[in-house]
Fold this sequence. Notes:
Blueprint: E1 5-13, E2 16-21, E3 24-30, H1 32-42, E4 47-51, H2 54-57, H3 63-72, E5 77-80, H4 86-95, E6 99-102, H5 104-108, H6 111-120, E7 125-133, E8 139-143, E9 148-153, H7 154-164, E10 168-173, H8 185-192, E11 199-202, H9 208-216, E12 222-225, H10 227-237, H11 241-244, H12 250-254, H13 266-275
Parallel strand pairs: 1-4, 1-12, 4-5, 5-6, 6-7, 7-10, 10-11, 11-12
Antiparallel strand pairs: 1-2, 2-3, 7-8, 8-9
Helix pairs in contact: 1-3, 9-13
Amino acid sequence: MVNIRVIPRLDIKGPNLVKGIHLEGLRVLGRPEDFAQYYYEQGADELMYVDVVASLYERNSLHDIISKTARRTFIPLTVGGGIRTIDDIKSVLRAGADKVSLNTAAVRNPTIIREASRKFGSSTIVVAIEAIKQPDGKYLAYVDNGREHTGIEVLSWAKKVEELGAGELIVTSVDNEGTGTGYNIELTKLIAENVSIPVIAHGGPGTLKDFGTVLKDGKADALSVASVLHYDYIKKIEHTMHHRTEGNIEFLKSNRSFQKINPTGITEIKQYLLSNFYECRH
Length: 282
């Protein structure tokens, strides 16, 4: 059995780690370097940075953060957001990333997937699919952090991406993202059962049970995790937060919007996976 990877996702806006619901309403949580270092020390298998406003400004501004993280952590680092050309990919990899995640660029110019996979290797190229369920039950792909409609049906797109040479997919349910209601099992399974490359599930976990469900029923190969990890870390450093980060934790203290999210750490997630007979690095 292949080891299940637990991959913290850090959404970045400017110099800050941010988090929202349905990829919107972004709140500043703190310095991404602090979170990344903590997750590395706790046993994360990989890290993922996404510049969530990069596509709006047609640039990726994560080079400094990438370099700092690459010097301090020794696990694969995937970077996405605003990467549009082969030169952009080369620049991010030179800064210290191990993989790049493409969404907007892949949709607008699918040949970049083939070109990039041939130049840098398919294992370096991850394609992100941001999906929203339509009234007729179909899932359509979106770009620009879930803002822009493409009209592309996600399963046909996932198959095409695989044919073009992508090494893996990260599948985000925009409907579930940040809600704590669980991963979108239907969406994840739809894609995982129809492609042969790894599928990383993203969007919605609120409890430990959600991780087992998306692996067993959704057929996911890896877990992308954000809210439950971020809020767990903030709780642990709350008493020293004003010294360590600029994050705003008042909304967490109020508990108004996050009743469905049960903060938990990487250690607990991996213990849960092992207890349910899922292999993982621990």
